[in-house]
Amino acid sequence: xxxxxxxxxxxxxxxxxxxxxxxxxxxxLPRRPAQGLDRLLPYAALLxxxxxxxxxxxxxLWQQRLGxxxxxxxxxxxxxxxWQFWGPHGDAGxxxxxxxxxxxxxLPDALPDALRVDALVVVAPSPLARQLLQExxxxxxxxxxGLDQRCSLALQQREAVHWNGVALAQMLGPLSxxxxxxxxxxxxxxxxxxxxxxxxxADASTDALQAAPTPIAVxxxxxxxxxxxxxxxGPRLELLLRGLLSTALLRDALAQRYGLGAEQLRRLQxxxxxxxxxxxxxxxxxxxxxxxxRLPGERQLWDRWLLDLSRALTDQGLASSQPAPGxxxxxxxxxxxxxGWRRLGSDWLLLFLGPSPTQTxxxxxxxxxxxxxxxxxxxxxxxxxxxxxxxxVVQRAQRLVLQGQGAGQSALAGRLELK
Length: 419
Prior knowledge:
The chain is α+β, with helices and mostly antiparallel strands. The protein has 13 helices and 18 strands.
């Protein structure tokens, strides 16, 4: 080889490498299927991905947003995933999101609510919603990090759901303070027979940057025996107190009317507990509420508190009785029981609202660091106690079980038993 030929041959090889290697990389590592989803995520209170099934009819949302003809045409070209999301104003309706299909004609000009976001088509529920989203997308936002980044990847690869505190408040309504530790989260979904299963994570922070928590297993099929309408158990009562005590009005009421001050609440935060809501077949109450909690510290402290509580209830016109050893029952003037408490051993206490329970909730297992929520949505709906904002699939489910491990950051797993 002559030296003067080398530059030409090196140039040719270099040019070939610059052309062939990127093409090979693109073949081996296809473009992200939902380029643009990262930009939408910060503006979504709730965002969910679905598997496209073009052999079936287009979903109702597609027909509502595109019209029957355009929906059918665009739906036939879908191959992987599509998405829907709600903005901070959930009553405005859902946005439809799907990948733009190569070779498909553009959406008709008569559809003013559609816009392109990178490789995605976004169809807003109204012209105003489209305008607001378009203005928000002009703002420079940093790339997703931490939980947001992990969830964005999951939403682009499989069926998943992401939420923030706005969506949680809209779904749970007055119960949302009880879910302060789940203000932001992401779940990956899959089906198993008639059940919907999920695994993922949640965080009390709105900008969670920690590494992913260690996953926990999906709980087994629930026992088919008649369970409580709702049951929540965990290693720390702080899970409940953090939300309940977020308002000064409730803190003052507990301290002034029931003698449960800052010192007692501080001690109770680390106590294992079990809470259940039980149906009432007859009487003035639709349900009774039971709380079993371990009382930390000296027994005299809690005896004094129960004595103060007794005085407060007497001042409110209630009368007490002791129908069984360790049981204190409080009743109205007409004799109807409204609540009470029962000592369980040396350091456990059962507090209840409504009639005295015939069966106490199961005590939390010693050393267990995992909390579990179990409820019967259809039974709660029948009693009028189910929050109306929950997704329809949850409202119509027979049983829901959700487990979490952790405090500020939680690994989550659960199952939804459909009818």
